[in-house]
Design a protein that fits this description.
The protein is an all-alpha fold and 216 residues long. 74% of the residues lie in helices and 0% in strands.
Length: 216
């Protein structure tokens, strides 16, 4: 229960940072609005409303993230350029087999913690249980789990590459160190406004994508 409260707090805080970056709305106000909207449509529509909005939010999240990643990658000169910059900055260490628990990211810590996290979300999470319990048969629930894992892996690949693109864009000028932004969590929203803010509708699509990832 304690971890659920912490998780929900993070889910409400993260998109509020993005919204406060692209608009004049304060973080507190955006958290309050999000809480009211989510409570309203879930209370009125029940599980059916949750399922339909999940589908819509997933599509928006995918569209916003892919759009930002593709446009910034194109401006940099393509995937090869992004990959070369990330490799030069030692951001592509896939198989670091160091067994030390004090190393930030290793192959072992990623596998173990990733497995435990997915088991907690899919096997024990309230949100996953509600969705699986709403189907009629066990076999359907099993198929849903496989579809979910395929979707999650696809999204992770897109999100990780988006992070590489952000690193490549600011590899020679860290916005946080330069004082252009005050929080590390705002670097991606800052990228959207800095490099793509001139494109009508794109900042709004990105904010919708961020909210789509947490409105459950």
């Amino acid at each position: 229960m304690a971890s659920l409260f912490l998780y929900m707090g993070m889910c409400m805080y993260a998109p509020s940072l993005a919204l406060s970056t692209v608009t004049n709305l304060s973080t507190v106000a955006s958290i309050a609005i999000m809480g009211v909207v989510c409570t309203f449509y879930i209370t009125i529509g029940g599980v059916k409303a949750v399922v339909y909005t999940d589908v819509l939010q997933t599509l928006i999240m995918l569209a916003g993230t892919v759009m930002v990643t593709v446009l910034c990658c194109y401006d940099l000169g393509g995937v090869d350029k992004v990959w070369a910059i990330a490799d030069q900055g030692q951001r592509l260490q896939f198989f670091n087999l160091d067994p030390s628990p004090f190393v930030r990211h290793t192959f072992w810590s990623t596998i173990v913690l990733g497995f435990n996290n997915m088991m907690a979300v899919v096997g024990l999470g309230q949100a996953a249980f509600q969705r699986l319990a709403s189907v009629s048969t066990l076999s359907t629930a099993v198929r849903l789990c496989w579809v979910f894992l395929l979707g999650v892996w696809s999204l992770f690949i897109i999100f990780f590459f988006c992070g590489l693109v952000d690193y490549a864009v600011y590899s020679e000028c860290d916005p946080l160190a330069a004082g252009l932004t005050t929080k590390a969590d705002q670097i991606i929203p800052f990228l959207v406004m800095d490099k793509l803010g001139h494109l009508p509708g794109l900042p709004g699509l990105f904010v919708a994508a961020v909210y789509g990832g947490v409105l459950r």
